[in-house]
């Protein structure tokens, strides 16, 4: 398919979707794989008013030998469950979640690009009870759609620029930062738009309480590579527990690097960059894979990292991760889930 040659991110969709309904007293029912069609929603549907919605992001890859694989889909199933718990939504059994993903990948397998692209899978669930009282809804729809994708950023694998937001926070202790709910992204859009105005690819959020500690980007986790080879990443809590983040920590340790999950302040980041103690920084996530950070802008100035180039540690981690996903490197941890 010619459309698959340069798909960009999230603009093209496959022919099918999976839907499963949930209703109080009936649990999950009416699972189907069908033609992709618009939903009919009652104007009073709870999701339209109170944003009871969660989603996941994962990819199906065509390996170099022609097989089709998912990367750690059990982790997406588990995170979907914990997001549902946080948003007072019904929990989908992990096996049902995985079956839904597999069925869609099988029926839309011709849409998986070969080469660098992949098929981005977007499972999501929303409240569709028509009721305006504020309480957890009693009806939900689960759905999976798919989109052939290439690079998330326009510049491909080139270093990205980031804007450190001094005005907005993404999440607070006790809030929904660790859940993958649509509301988190709605709240991040103004900060992301400001980053774009400043000429940057992504926004970096600092913590809500002190506005001091680096948390994550609008749609990615963040890592720092120090001069002694140690890799630092902010701890879990208010950030999204990224599956790429967790995997890269393991791959870095496999390669003999020291990895620390610890609070890292923006002041420290600037100081380490100025004194040459910070060698590299990168963002990571399913959509973005591993994206080197070349330039950092903030309210009082800007600085570059690794001379705006791709550093060796970032390059190596990216190559190892992509190599496993594409089947060209050994899958030592059993992360690939083969679609028969
Ligand atoms: N942080 C945010 C806010 C995200 O949206 C994402 C993307 O899913 C990530 C981190 C990375 O998570 P993962 O590696 O599981 O895709
Ligand atoms: C992902 O990497 O899957 C994301 O969800 C990030 C963004 C596209 C929302």
TrEMBL record:
Question: Known EC number(s)?
Answer: 2.6.1.42
Q: Which family does it belong to?
A: Belongs to the class-IV pyridoxal-phosphate-dependent aminotransferase family.
Q: Where are the transmembrane segments?
A: none
Q: What is the scientific name of the source organism?
A: Microvirga aerophila
Organism superkingdom: Bacteria
What are its GO biological-process terms? isoleucine biosynthetic process; L-leucine biosynthetic process; L-valine biosynthetic process
Key words of the record? Amino-acid biosynthesis, Aminotransferase, Branched-chain amino acid biosynthesis, Pyridoxal phosphate, Transferase
Q: Name one GO molecular function term.
A: L-isoleucine-2-oxoglutarate transaminase activity
Positions carrying N6-(pyridoxal phosphate)lysine are 180
Keyword NAD part of the UniProt annotation: no
Name the CDD domains on file.
BCAT_beta_family
Tell me the lineage of the source organism: Bacteria, Pseudomonadati, Pseudomonadota, Alphaproteobacteria, Hyphomicrobiales
Q: What is this protein called?
A: Branched-chain-amino-acid aminotransferase
């Amino acid at each position: 398919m010619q459309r698959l040659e340069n798909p960009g991110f999230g603009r093209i969709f496959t022919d099918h979707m999976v839907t499963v309904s949930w209703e109080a007293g009936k649990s999950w029912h009416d699972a189907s794989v069908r033609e992709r069609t618009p939903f009919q929603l009652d104007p009073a549907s709870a999701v339209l008013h109170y944003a009871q919605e969660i989603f996941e992001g994962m990819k199906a890859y065509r390996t170099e030998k022609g097989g089709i694989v998912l990367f750690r889909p059990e982790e997406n199933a588990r995170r979907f469950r914990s997001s549902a718990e946080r948003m007072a939504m019904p929990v989908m059994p992990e096996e049902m979640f995985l079956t839904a993903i597999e069925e869609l990948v099988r029926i839309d397998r011709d849409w998986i690009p070969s080469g660098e692209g992949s098929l981005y899978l977007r499972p999501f669930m929303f409240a569709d009870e028509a009721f305006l009282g504020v309480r957890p809804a009693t009806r939900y729809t689960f759905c999976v759609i798919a989109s052939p994708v290439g690079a998330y950023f326009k510049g491909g694998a080139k270093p990205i620029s980031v804007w450190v937001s001094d005005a907005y926070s993404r999440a607070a202790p006790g809030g929904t930062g660790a859940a993958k709910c649509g509301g988190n992204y709605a709240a991040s859009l103004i900060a992301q738009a400001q980053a774009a105005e400043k000429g940057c690819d992504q926004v970096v959020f600092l913590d809500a309480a002190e506005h001091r500690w680096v948390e994550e980007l609008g749609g990615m986790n963040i890592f720092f590579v120090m001069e002694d080879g140690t890799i630092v990443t902010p701890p879990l809590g208010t950030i999204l527990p990224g599956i790429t983040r967790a995997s890269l920590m393991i791959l870095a340790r496999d390669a003999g690097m020291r990895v620390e999950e610890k609070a890292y302040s923006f002041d420290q980041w600037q100081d380490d960059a100025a004194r040459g103690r910070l060698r590299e920084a990168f963002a990571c996530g399913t959509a973005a894979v591993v994206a080197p950070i070349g330039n950092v802008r903030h309210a009082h100035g800007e600085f570059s990292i690794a001379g705006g180039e791709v550093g060796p540690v970032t390059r190596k981690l990216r190559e190892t991760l992509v190599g496993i996903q594409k089947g060209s490197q050994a899958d030592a941890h059993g992360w690939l889930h083969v679609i028969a």
